[in-house]
Amino acid sequence: MVNRFKFNGRLYGEVFYNDTGIVNLNPTIEDINNSLDLFVSNSGVLYLEQNKEEGNIPFRLTTYAEKQKYLVMFGKSNPEVDDGVEVRTFWDDTRAPGLISLQGDLWDNRTISENFSLVRKAFNEFYLTGDIDQNIVS
Question: What rounded mean pLDDT belongs to the chain?
Answer without folding.
Answer: 82
